Amino acid sequence: MVTFQVSRVETAPFDGQKPGTSGLRKKVKVFVQPHYLQNFVQSTFYALSAEKVQGATLVVSGDGRYFSKDAIQIIIKMSAANGVRRVWVGQNGLLSTPAVSAVIRERVGHDGSKATGAFILTASHNPGGPHEDFGIKYNMENGGPAPEAITDKMYENTKTIKEYLIAENLPDVDIAAIGVTSFTGPEGQFDVEVFDSASDYVKLMKSIFDFQAIRKLLSSPNFSFCYDALHGVAGAYANRIFVEELGAQESSLLNCTPKEDFGGGHPDPNLTYAKELVARMGLGKSSPQHEPPEFGAAADGDADRNMVLGKRFFVTPSDSVAIIAANAVEAIPYFSGGLKGVARSMPTSAALDVVAKHLNLKFFEVPTGWKFFGNLMDAGLCSVCGEESFGTGSDHIREKDGIWAVLAWLSILAYKNKENINGGKLVSVEDIVRQHWATYGRHYYTRYDYENVDAGAAKELMAYLVRLQSSLGEVNEIVKGVCSDVSNVVHADEFEYKDPVDGSISKHQGIRYLFEDGSRLIFRLSGTGSEGATIRLYIEQYEKDPLKTGRDSQEALAPLVNVALKLSKMEEFTGRSAPTVIT
């Protein structure tokens, strides 16, 4: 057994190591600077209580993007030096973000050990490669992201750090080979266990869904299916779940080999970046060569986001979570006893609110950031939740879960088609959505993303919108000047949230303009990019009349879009005449 020594390495603080709701994300060139990653990891260890480090079990894995393998070896060496007892690593360093949450909550080691936290190496839906993005975040013993109290401590530590601990003479561990490697250090034995990335997660999914019912659907001659992992970590699960467990054809999987650079693509599951899937589903600019499948879905780099498509039909994430909630009790065994409550992020459309009211469910509107859902779930207040940025999930883990959302949709399709799987016309994705609109009304919804905007200009735009809120008379003059048919703004504010569980208050969570007819304009600065600023503009209009729910979304929203662009002086502040992405 190899014996290692602990080295204390002198270092100095770096600027800008404040983790956001999704951890720390920067370009690879920033992370590979001497001591940069090490400073962040040591600052995390210092922020945790002693029992979460000394003698603890930690998970270290991620989405497989460029620099992950080097980072894993560094974190293993630092864990050993800081007194961690064992580190669990998914084979080849691969674990989806939802699988990490599942492993923390569900996995028991061969010696009875349980994980108390995890370093997750991902920049989510951002590109990967030597010149692209890398990221790291820490999840707690409940499987969810570190709360603000911990991330604030981590940040404070990065500003004062003078040294870090590392076992420099610890040899690299072969993370391709399943098994346990043991070492001896000043505090005794230290183990690194490499385990199968998919087993724990697959077991959890089988306990939630009726795999037999989904398998029957996928075997129907009338049903066809397509899943695109965008060369992210979802590929490590797709074959196991969809092919081996559910009997789908291997040819139904697209881009399911995880790659360090995501095949040169942008692993963001939306209509702009999931080009191959969008074309195959009949939603591209040219007609597909073959008849599109009945159902299609895509994942982002770390497999926590999802996009759901029907044949020539796009399901908005806001509609998706509402439809899952409306059908969960009937279609998904895990929820057969009823839903505890539902929640959405503030920018997500109010489609879920209407379902909650109709089904008499507890409902919560929270800031963007999955940790707010986690608090509700830990308190037993929420079963299903979602956000407009292609994140959907439930209380089975404490992260959003892209494959879970796909299995939820397949479960709903299987339930709706249980009488006609072997013959007759299938109830399609589009049928389910249109029926939902007929029952609950439709929330026309779109999001405009202006990426890599000058950070100063973005802050000026947001400050201007806050100032404008003090005079609704002036706001409504601008609105009527653009389009007299648009109703009046009756309320404008910056969204603030008081957590019903711990009483914490989150301020400045997005600028809202609320209209008399239920329409909304939301403006937010997003922290998910690694350079510049991203301005997100959300536009929503509610339509109850069943005769008016079938319009083209962009056409229905055009007057409100014009109002939003004029009201915000978007082009004047940013120099952009069009958004980078429209969803």
From TrEMBL:
Signal peptide: none annotated. PROSITE patterns: PGM_PMM. Residues 17-164, 200-309, 318-418 form the Alpha-D-phosphohexomutase alpha/beta/alpha domain. InterPro entries: A-D-PHexomutase_a/b/a-I (IPR005844), A-D-PHexomutase_a/b/a-I/II/III (IPR016055), A-D-PHexomutase_a/b/a-II (IPR005845), A-D-PHexomutase_a/b/a-III (IPR005846), A-D-PHexomutase_C_sf (IPR036900), A-D-PHexomutase_CS (IPR016066), Alpha-D-phosphohexomutase_SF (IPR005841), PGM (IPR045244). The keyword Lipid metabolism does not apply. It catalyses: alpha-D-glucose 1-phosphate = alpha-D-glucose 6-phosphate; alpha-D-glucose 1,6-bisphosphate + L-seryl-[protein] = O-phospho-L-seryl-[protein] + alpha-D-glucose 6-phosphate; O-phospho-L-seryl-[protein] + alpha-D-glucose 1-phosphate = alpha-D-glucose 1,6-bisphosphate + L-seryl-[protein]. Its cofactor is Mg(2+). SUPFAM superfamilies: Phosphoglucomutase, C-terminal domain, Phosphoglucomutase, first 3 domains. Monomer. This is phosphoglucomutase (alpha-D-glucose-1,6-bisphosphate-dependent). It comes from Eucalyptus globulus (Tasmanian blue gum). Its EC number is 5.4.2.2. It is an enzyme of class 5 (isomerase). It holds the Pfam family PGM_PMM_I. Keywords: Carbohydrate metabolism, Glucose metabolism, Isomerase, Magnesium, Metal-binding, Phosphoprotein. Belongs to the phosphohexose mutase family. Catalyzes the reversible isomerization of alpha-D-glucose 1-phosphate to alpha-D-glucose 6-phosphate. The mechanism proceeds via the intermediate compound alpha-D-glucose 1,6-bisphosphate. This enzyme participates in both the breakdown and synthesis of glucose. GO terms for molecular function: metal ion binding; phosphoglucomutase activity. GO terms for biological process: glucose metabolic process.
